[in-house]
Amino acid sequence: MKPDELKSLRAYFLKVFKTPGLVIKARPKKSDSAEVYIGDEFLGVLYRDEDEGELSYNFSMAILDIDLED
User: Which residues pair with 37 in a beta bridge?
Assistant: First the structure.
């Protein structure tokens, strides 16, 4: 993804989730996705989807059962 896309997506995520430590990083070998972090904690992958001239983004986050334990 382009730097301006990453900046816009980060602004959107900050507005929705109100988490100032949120970071969106480009993936080194992929141009259609980025990684989402809060600080050093990996949250998931953000995918760019362009189909028939329409652009959308999909966020995928896996939650492991061990992460749910206190």
Answer: 23, 42
Distance (Å, whole) CA 12 – CA 4: 12
- Going from N- to C-terminal start, the domains of the chain cover 3-63
At 37-70, the pLDDT tens digits run 999 999 999 999 999 999 999 999 999 999 898 7
Contact 22, 9 (CB under 8 A): no
pTM of the model: 0.86
CA distance 60 to 70: 23
Contact 6, 34 (CB under 8 A): yes
